[in-house]
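Our platform keeps sequence and structure together, in a single record for each protein. Such a record has a labelled line for the sequence and another for the backbone structure tokens. This encoding replaces a full spatial description with a residue-level series of whole-number codes. Below, we set out a record of this kind in full and without editing:
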Amino acid sequence: MGSLVMATASYLDAKQRAGDWFIRIDDIDPPRAQTGATERILASLAAHGLHSDQSIQYQSKHSHHYQAAYEALQPDLFYCTCTRAVLKDTPIYPGTCRSQRTPIEGAATRIDVSTWQPIEIQDGYLGKQIFTANVDFGDFIIKRKDGLWAYNFATAVDDSRDVSHVVRGQDLAELTGPQVGLIRALGKLIPSYSHLPLLKFPEGDKLSKHTHAPAINDNDAIANLRLTLAKLGVIAADAPTIEQLLENAVSFWQLSRIPKSLEPFPRAENGC
């Protein structure tokens, strides 16, 4: 349900701006992929009337874009052999391997952010946000030791290519600093960001697989959407079909109307 809330919010924001809303599947980490997960996500979005305005994108097919960006950033990249055990007591990477500019087999690739200027964005929901690289996130990984692209890097590259507005949950707000820093380093246009409050259980845990959130019942899609709109503070005229309900909701959509915290989602809630 938490994923549906954020998907619906981004959809309504795009449509209210007369823009395109599209689906991108983050599938760059095969070891963590669950069989059939992508198909279930796409089927559930379709059941709730959330259809991509463009061809569905898959990050696994964007390696050429990532490689080009990697090469463009080469002067600022270094190769890190530090283990998690070594770094476990250092919340911000201390720059241990910054001088290692020659590739090493089995090393992670990090970007040197020591010279980055403060990063300031005007979040559409949270207001002004300022990130100081050496204080807030440090030299972060671009390419993992196993050769896979890091999430921050892939997301920043994709967002710099064809995205004007990003609407997502506040659990990703802290990633905006490194992502915007990367986009700026690449000389690309920086999207506008809006980070919305998360749907949580009464105990304060966000809805996720790890907190045993119930799966959505796609057969109750219109009921799910009505509940979603209520959580987002969207007071729209009710309608008998999903398409009409979403159309009505678009005309009422305003980021400023979203509550500062969403009404908790009871663990015993049925119908979703």
About this structure: The chain has a mean pLDDT of 91. The CA atoms of residues 57 and 88 lie 35 Å apart. The longest strand covers residues 119-123.
